[in-house]
């Protein structure tokens, strides 16, 4: 894992169904993300915020809300992440809603092909994000990033990278899933997406889930973590627009992060869907910072 990271703020809720995720980057900064990582000996550069189109807050057009604006934000992020990877730094995307994973993972996937490395994506989320315009009437693209990355979606998004599809579904491991639309459920089964839903976590425990999700990660693997804050149970993380009861507890979430850190292979990170408009005294942002510290090696005294 690189000890040199770059924070990239992406202040937009362009793909979301609620306003407010655009304030996520500043909430993470106020919660002390940069300072916490510096205290762990990490070289931190805050690149500030990307610029992009404002959110016009319009209904769907041909099945998608704000498609042109979504594309613009993701192209800007794709290029920003690519530049950090090229410079040998670990990009941390401060979202913003989860549609931004299209841009960040597009850059990561291209980088792994260029460098001849394997890609593994750990997708921490309450939702599978494998919707299409035919499945969901909302047209909100934050419910579609994984399907778009896998080549199912509007041409401007599925063709955003150096190849189509951007990724193969086999590189994705989704953890914490507990809200999937009926049509989406059929689609993820058809493509063989590897999903560790909450029932499976309840049955076998988070340790086994993470052992399975990280199986095969080695020195040739670029591990990308896409951390949607609604992955967490809303009792500990109320600051999201799409809360779903029954998510991982604080300790389960810490175990996830610690086991990812133990691999030493995390090379890029998204933090998305933090919505201060729904939060309580920045509680969720502070929890997110705590968990990201664990991704960078914070652990109990027994394993210090």
Automatic annotation (TrEMBL):
One Pfam family named in its UniProt record: Arginase
The reaction(s) annotated as catalysed by this protein in its Swiss-Prot or TrEMBL entry are: L-arginine + H2O = urea + L-ornithine
Q: In which pathway does it act?
A: Nitrogen metabolism; urea cycle; L-ornithine and urea from L-arginine: step 1/1
The domain of life for this entry's organism is: Bacteria
Give the Enzyme Commission number.
3.5.3.1
Please share the entry's free-text remark on the cofactor.
Binds 2 manganese ions per subunit.
**Record key words, sorted:** Arginine metabolism, Hydrolase, Manganese, Metal-binding
Q: What class of enzyme is it?
A: hydrolase
The GO molecular function terms of this record are: arginase activity
Instruction: Return the InterPro entries for the record.
Output: Arginase, Ureohydrolase, Ureohydrolase_dom_sf, Ureohydrolase_Mn_BS
The cofactor required is: Mn(2+)
Q: Can you tell me which family this protein belongs to?
A: Belongs to the arginase family.
Record's protein name: Arginase
- The gene it comes from is rocF
């Amino acid at each position: 894992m690189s000890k040199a990271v770059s924070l990239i703020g992406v202040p937009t809720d362009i793909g979301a169904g609620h306003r407010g995720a655009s304030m996520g980057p500043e909430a993470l900064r106020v919660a002390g993300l940069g300072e916490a990582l510096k205290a762990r000996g990490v070289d931190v550069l805050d690149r500030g915020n990307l610029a992009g189109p404002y959110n016009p807050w319009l209904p769907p057009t041909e099945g998608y809300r704000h498609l042109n604006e979504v594309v613009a934000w993701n192209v800007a992020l794709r290029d920003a992440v690519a530049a950090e990877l090229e410079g040998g730094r670990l990009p941390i995307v401060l979202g913003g809603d989860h549609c931004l994973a299209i841009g960040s993972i597009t850059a990561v996937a291209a980088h792994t092909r260029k460098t001849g490395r394997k890609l593994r994506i750990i997708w921490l989320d309450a939702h599978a994000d494998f919707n299409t315009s035919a499945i969901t009437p909302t047209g909100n693209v934050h419910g579609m990033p994984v399907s778009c990355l896998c080549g199912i979606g509007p041409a401007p998004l599925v063709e955003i990278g150096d190849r189509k599809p951007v990724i193969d579904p086999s590189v994705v491991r989704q953890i914490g899933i507990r809200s999937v639309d009926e049509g989406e459920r059929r689609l993820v089964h058809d493509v063989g997406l590897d999903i560790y839903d909450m029932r499976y976590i309840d049955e076998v425990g988070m340790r086994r889930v993470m052992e399975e999700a990280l199986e095969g990660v080695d020195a040739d693997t670029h591990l990308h973590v896409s951390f949607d804050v609604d992955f967490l149970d809303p009792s500990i993380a109320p600051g999201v627009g799409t809360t779903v009861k029954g998510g991982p507890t604080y300790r389960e979430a810490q175990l996830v992060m610690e086991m990812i850190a133990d691999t030493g292979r995390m090379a890029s990170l998204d933090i998305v869907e933090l919505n201060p408009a729904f939060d309580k005294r920045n509680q969720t942002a502070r929890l997110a910072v705590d968990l990201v510290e664990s991704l960078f090696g914070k652990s109990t005294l027994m394993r210090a």
